[in-house]
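Supplementary Methods, section 5.1.

A reviewer requested that the exact input to the structure prediction be made available. We therefore reproduce it here, unchanged from the version used in the analyses.
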Amino acid sequence: MLRLTLISVLVFFSTLVRAGGIKGIVTDANGERMAFTSVIVKGQNAGTMTNAEGEYRINLKPGSYEINFQFVGFKTVTRRVVVANDFTELNVRMQEQTIMLQEARISAKEEDAAYTIMRKAIAKSKIHQKQVVSYQANAYVRNSILLNKIPLVLKKDLYRQNIKEGIPFLSESVMEIVFNEPNSKFTKVLGQKSSFNNISISDGFYLFDFYDPGHYRVSPLSPQAFRYYRFEYEGFFEDRGLIINKIKIIPKSFGEGVWQGTIYIIDDYWNIHSIDAETIENGLNLKINQYYSPVEKVWMPINQRIDFYGKLFGFDFVIKAQLNAGYTAVKTNPAFVEDIKIIDEKKEGITIEGISKNSLKNSKTEELLKDSKEFSVRNLMKIMKDYEKEERTRARANKEEAAVVSRELMIVEPSARGKDSTFWNSMRKIPLTNEESESYQYSDSVKIAKIEKRDSLQRDSLSKAWRYFLLNYDFKLKNGRYLHFEPPYTPFVGLNYNSVEGIVSDMGVGFKNYTSLGAKPRVRYNVSANMRYAFQARALRGKVGGEYEVGTSKLSVGAGNYIEQFDPNSLIFEWMNTVTTLFNEQNLMKIYSKKFVNIGYSYNEDARLTFSTNMELARRSPLENLQKIYRIKDFEKNGFSPNNPSNLELGESAFTTHNALIWQNMIKWTPSSKVIIRNGVRKYLTGGAPIITFIYKKGMLDANFDYLSLNIKQHVNTGVLGKLDYMVEVGDYVNDRSVYLMDMKHINNSYLNALRIGLFARYRLLETRMPLPEDNGAKSINLYRFSTKGAYLQAHVINEFKQLIFTRLPFVKRWGLKEDLFANYLNTPAVKNYIEVGYGIDGIMRALRIEAVSSFENGVYKRSGIKLGVTM
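The structure derived from this sequence is encoded token-by-token as follows.
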């Protein structure tokens, strides 16, 4: 039996080694190699595309085949070939298509012929999207990242990690796909290969769907396309007996999410033959090329190439993604593959009897498409809208989740990463270029070097790990737990300076069973402690805390004697305050002493709903600035301000030591219904939904107050107008018998605090630089001047435009610059009807923005200014 098994294995491998096929080079009429040319095996739904050097290779069983070579703008070349046990070399030279015009234009006022073609294609786009009920596919995916330039400051560190300029990081995968409508996809990864530490970036089978109207990218086939694009008819050519219309896509304003390029539409069928287009994504260039081929009467994308490139933070990079798919077992919806005639009533007039409104209302889509063979553009679009309503009705009747956008399940075979060269020679659809081959050779040399050093590294690994631990790294224990250490001797980490404590050393230790980057177990826990010593104040403080999390619930406890900022949510970090205190004579961080014990509970079912409650008993004491505050440079116009800042409603906010019991509750709700299910995990898509937050806070003992607030914020895609963000919050202290500064509502008038809710949600020109009584003419920043203990209303809105003034110029958008208009409103007992309006240019050098702002109070002009800040 063993002998028979060995013979079978040897026969199998000898078959692979002897497997034949075709290979060759594709060139144009001038002999130039043609990259990414589609090579299709007729009748087999199989094929490939040439690599960047114009080379191709297809594994085929012995037999006779008909091969089609296709490239946008070139005549399709068909060759017959007989394949034996070896590879047959088949080089092909392609000729450019002769583009013909159907008829001369009569006058300049006549509408371009492209508009009729596009109206018909748009009307039928939903049909094309619904044609396929299910399919299976064998896919080959190859992605690469090439760094043409690395910033000098990072070059040395990245070189140590074997990341170098000019050597691509390459990843390729072979997978099987099973798709079922409307959104179910199963992926089995059969093979993985990577040139960088076995990290795969090629496991996804994702095709751009230009039949989908799009939200962030507007498809040329969207019903809203004519608001974003102009189209120009450039002629037609014949391909295998079909007329292919060449349409130029001209954006009215090129920029984020708007395409430009060429789309090829098949006459009478009105589907995509191929598309070559580009857009801008976050200030970077995104190019895509798709080629479609007929499969079971349906044209499906078989080859896709994406180039994503640009310059960012000193990096000059190119990301390439190539995908080749061969479809099998394609099942179609018969109603959507029927041949129908579409009449453009705007251009061609109504030459058919219109379908009655009663028929449109009472007939099912399949029946209408079967009984009627001619439709106007308007009627067909109405029919497909009704069909989508029918789908939702059927889903509810079958108790299906209509809100599920996609269901994805992916498994990676255990042997996927161990496939040898025999597997890849047989399954790699696109040959490697010389550059890509060098990437693997470089990776192999690095692996050999690591193996040679393994023994010496093992001897030093434990001591090296402890050294990293002492430099503020997590240290992994053998049982899968982690020790965390925050060193008290590292400047700007545990060693800082402030105007109250002077030089302060803060040591933190922790023990946990997870890391922020790794997979989190269902049961998670974290125990931490801090010890803090202030040298000039000669004070020792400390605190301990712990968290225990099971599934969606988390319990937290804490106790200690420590310092706290008056705004507990402030993002003025200690290292920032160290810099501003020593180098700019501004003590931004305002603190008090707190002896406390607290307990909290939070529940987070998913991204839609969060609930938390927290109770803290604290003895809070004031702290004063040191008599002598050190500074490296003395600024005449700056000065240190009191640690207990003044407030418009409290006056001088110095307080006496007191006890407070604070109980706070929060409910955050995002009314989103769309969900992605990936490997059994549900992820709700909350990006465009409003986020509603309700807070109730109660102060007891020496503190005595009741605080309520309601906050709503949302990000909205406003179509041709761009993107809009808004935030509105209303609140009141319905009981304000005893409210201390740390219990007040703090107004966002700095970049740092606005980070919590969005950089747009802040006030630019509220007067925060106050005269200092002890320093004549000197001023300081007071972030607590406008904090309130009364009823308030604050609102912020900003709209980033696709085009406004400078962004109408194409080169400005290619620089990644964006323009926006914004407005802010504030009303409190101390500040009445305060309004700011402004204009901003964002994305300067990918990191900065500049704003021009004017402010008004009670309808009276107050001031204007120019503000420079970080990008939003």
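The CA atoms of residues 26 and 32 lie 8 Å apart. These observations are discussed further in the main text.
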